[in-house]
Amino acid sequence: MPFPDFITPQVVLIFITFILVVFMLYKLFKVLFRATLVAIAAFSFPWIVQALGLPFPIAATVENGIYFAVAGLGLFFAYEFFHFIVHFFRMLFWPLRALLGSEKNDEEKKLEKEMKKIREEEKE
User: Fold this and answer.
1) How many angstroms separate the CA atoms of 124 and 114, rounded?
2) pLDDT per residue over 13-30, tens digit each?
3) Helical packing angle, 45-52 and 62-92, nearest 10°
4) d(Cα 14, Cα 16) in Å, to the nearest integer?
5) How much of the chain, in percent, has pLDDT values that exceed 70?
6) Are 104 and 96 in contact (CB under 8 A)?
7) Which among 49, 48, 39 is positioned nearest to 71, based on CA atoms?
């Protein structure tokens, strides 16, 4: 069966690029949506503290709300950055973990079986 004429390397490259762009935009909008929720929650923090009557000297002003929103966004993006770094290194060292971790998984499985036997014996 001959290869179709309309499937050229350029078309394949465009399709792969399209998929990558859609995936990256999906991830970007997901992070931006979560960042918006964090900013709203952090902005409303002074009013929540005041409504709950907690003994913190925080004035419920727009200025304080903005400060807390900026602080919340800073913490959120720091978390996202470190989460990305950890995820990147896990992917980078996955082959090494798979090679070395397989023995560990077998040992864990053996220990779990032994613990299960001990629990069953205790029940009897």
Assistant:
1) 16
2) 999 999 999 999 999 999
3) 110
4) 6
5) 92
6) no
7) 39
CB proximity list for 109: less than 8 A, separation 6 or greater: none
pLDDT of amino acid 98:
73
pTM of the model: 0.65
Q: Which amino acid is at 23?
A: F
CB atoms within 10 A of CB 43: 19
Secondary structure, 3-state, the chain: CCCCCCCCHHHHHHHHHHHHHHHHHHHHHHHHHHHHHHHHHHHCHHHHHHHHCCCCCCCCCHHHHHHHHHHHHHHHHHHHHHHHHHHHHHHHCHHHHHHHHHHHHHHHHHHHHHHHHHHHHHHC
pLDDT in tens, 64-89: 999 999 999 999 999 999 999 999 98
